[in-house]
Specification:
Elements (H helix, E strand, L loop, with lengths): L1 H31 L6 H17 L4 H24 L7 H23 L14 E4 L2 E4 H23 L1 H11 L1 H6 L4 H27 L9 H11 L4 H21 L1 H4 L7 H12 L14
Antiparallel strand pairs: 1-2
Helix pairs in contact: 1-5, 1-6, 1-8, 1-9, 1-10, 2-3, 2-4, 2-8, 3-8, 5-6, 6-8, 9-10, 9-12
Length: 293
């Protein structure tokens, strides 16, 4: 039983890291109704910017604030030169635009910092932390607590603030929101800045665990089943979906993997996502699209 609990809790804590990546997708989707394929590249760019600043002698918080300011500048550039010319275009057009943006960001990052792997030490030791009869990772506990605070803050922002309500209006109908006085460029700049903040925090934890390298952008693949299960337009759904994916993949690897020869951790979440699409296409917390005909 202790081994089962350790596996379950370890999976839940790992799932929180997946949720942090997925939240960046949710923010952009809620503002534009499009899947932002460039979120992984933003995560990589933020992590590379931060680690490059710390390697040049800047303190943690100075590097963090400078990186956040850099991501805000990136958000302004994306809004001005990519999103503004594509207002009211089809979702597939915006998706292809973010696909191209992903490669541009990675190319700029490589030109600025090269392709070397950078070590990142957040000062958090990945050592067992005893909780009663079981032990869990101290690093995962701190990451989970950080993600929890982030989710609560973003949920309050989306549901209580005027900017958050404007964001939801833009997601429902950009042209109608414009006619009511909502400033679409301002909304998109804020949302992409928030997505950059989420990408920075997620990039720090993932980079600390596996090193800051270009394969870090592929962490977005872990967010796919999280979004499908939790819902593309729900911050709470991203958290719940991450917990489900994290716990299920660890338990499946331990208890089913030994029966089929192992190696199912990488694809089991996608099988779970396909099953979820068959039962609830909009996800557990997603809103079903209602179209008048």
């Amino acid at each position: 039983m202790n081994f089962f609990l350790e596996t379950l809790i370890g999976g839940l804590l790992a799932g929180v890291l997946y949720s942090m990546v997925a939240i960046g997708f949710v923010l952009i989707y809620k503002a534009s109704g499009v899947f932002n394929f460039a979120q992984g590249s933003l995560l990589l760019f933020a992590a590379l910017t931060f680690v490059s600043l710390t390697e040049r002698g800047f303190s943690f918080w100075v590097a963090f604030l400078l990186t956040l300011a850099t991501m805000a500048v990136v958000a302004v550039l994306i809004e001005r030169f990519l999103l503004r010319p594509l207002v009211a275009r089809s979702p597939i057009t915006l998706f292809m635009a973010t696909l191209g943006l992903s490669y541009i960001i990675e190319g700029v990052a490589q030109a600025l910092w090269g392709a070397d792997v950078h070590g990142l030490d957040l000062g958090i030791d990945d050592v067992p932390f005893p909780i009663g009869p079981i032990s869990v990772s101290r690093f995962d506990l701190i990451a989970a607590a950080t993600a929890g605070l982030l989710v609560v803050g973003l949920a309050l922002f989306a549901g209580r603030s005027r900017l958050g309500l404007s964001l939801r209006a833009v997601a429902d109908d950009p042209l109608a929101a414009l006619s009511l006085g909502v400033r679409l460029p301002k909304i998109w700049r804020w949302v992409w800045t928030l997505a950059g903040l989420v990408g920075l925090i997620a990039g720090l934890f993932w980079g600390s665990r596996s090193g800051v390298q270009f394969s870090l952008s592929l962490v977005v693949l872990k967010a796919m089943p999280v979004l499908v299960i939790g819902g593309f337009d729900s911050i709470a759904g991203a958290l719940v979906g991450g917990l489900i994916v994290g716990a299920s993949e660890k338990l499946a690897e331990v208890y089913i993997g030994e029966i089929v020869g192992g190696g199912i951790e990488n694809w089991f979440p996608y099988a779970l996502a396909i099953a979820s699409l068959m039962v609830r296409p909009a996800g557990l917390f997603g809103e079903r699209a209602i179209e008048r005909v």
